[in-house]
Design brief:
With 337 residues, this protein is of the alpha+beta class. It has eight helices and twelve strands. This is DUF3575 domain-containing protein.
Length: 337
């Protein structure tokens, strides 16, 4: 278990730096700090909170059959609850603060030596028993003092620096998309988005060719504790598009530039997977050529008709994006006492 490894690391540290004999240090891994986890769940607003608390309050840590084999337990029921969504949430938001190590040091407090003052013969009237140091120590010795010291080792919460994404809405209309988002701070990311559809059928005069690239800067807020990717964001984006569209009749070929603002929300669906929903609105300017396909000598000539312009303000982006978070970086966090 992870708790056993943490306890072993603490033992190694004490033996190496405090010069304590190895056989005087005993370790024991306690596993999950259930009492602390229950307090954190009770104080949170997580989904399925009542069901999680019911399991924590009424399910033993281990459930055995008549043969003494483990058949169920508290952790297994939490992992199975609602497809694992509450457990994944606790794993990312609560478990990093549960990891800690406790050292208990037992030692015997030394007693000061007893000094016996001899008496002069003239002062001695009758024999008195001599007070022996051993008997004094025996009668005045105090119980060994036990002192507990909480040794908190810094824990490292894993924060993913990079995210690879694809917009499921664009994929559904046969315009494959790829996005890369990089986290430069807890509240700031940069995103680069690209889509391309390059389909054509010369025989039927059908062209569906679109290529877009769009950089974006984002500011995040309302994030979950210990999970900077999950929350709301506001963004500013720009972009360029090249297109050639025709459906058997007149065609349109041109370029477009756009600029706008965006809003979105990202939430977890797995340990490294998330979903992002968002929208972008702004201004787009396009200059394009209109052409007609004309049959000629068994083939087709595309005859230029005119050049037009388009100025548009409104929705420019719509997102339902599958996100894969990777490139772990360590973020130090103190464990709980």
């Amino acid at each position: 278990m992870l708790s056993d490894r943490r306890a072993d690391s603490l033992k190694t540290y004490l033996v190496r730096h405090a010069e304590i004999p190895d056989n005087l240090v005993c370790i024991h891994g306690e596993g999950i700090a259930w009492d602390m986890l229950r307090r954190m769940v009770a104080a949170s607003d997580m989904l399925y909170k009542k069901e999680v608390l019911h399991i924590l309050d009424h399910t033993p840590v281990w459930v055995f059959d008549k043969a003494g084999r483990v058949v169920d337990g508290r952790k297994k029921q939490l992992m199975d609850l609602r497809g694992g969504m509450p457990y994944t949430y606790m794993l990312e938001n609560f478990f990093p603060d549960l990891r800690s190590s406790l050292s208990v040091v037992c030692y015997r407090k030394p007693e000061p030596p007893v000094k016996v003052i001899p008496q002069k013969e003239s002062e001695v009237k009758e024999p008195e028993p001599v007070l022996q140091p051993d008997s004094v120590a025996e009668t005045t010795s105090e119980p060994a003092t036990v002192r507990q010291e909480a040794t908190v080792q810094p824990q490292r919460a894993m924060v993913q620096r990079l995210a690879i994404k694809t917009n499921l809405l664009y994929d559904a209309i046969l315009m494959p998309s790829l996005e890369v988002e990089y986290r430069i701070a807890d509240r700031w990311t940069v995103n680069l988005e690209g889509e391309m559809a390059w389909w054509k059928n010369d025989g039927k005069h059908r062209y569906y060719q679109v290529a877009t690239i769009s950089p974006e800067g984002r500011w995040w807020f309302g994030q979950k504790q210990g999970s900077p990717w999950h929350g709301h964001y506001l963004g500013v984006f720009g972009g360029f598009t090249w297109y050639d569209l025709e459906n058997g009749k007149e065609g349109y070929q041109g370029e477009a530039e756009m600029v706008g603002v965006s809003y979105g929300y990202m939430f977890p669906i797995g340990r490294r997977l998330s979903l992002e929903a968002g929208i972008g609105v702004g201004y787009m300017h396009s200059k394009y050529e209109v052409y007609d396909p004309i049959p000629y000598l068994g083939g087709t000539h595309y005859v230029y008709r005119q050049t037009s312009k388009l100025d548009y303000f409104g929705p420019l982006k719509l997102k339902l994006t599958l996100v894969w978070r990777l490139w772990d970086t360590d973020k130090k966090k103190g464990g709980a006492r």
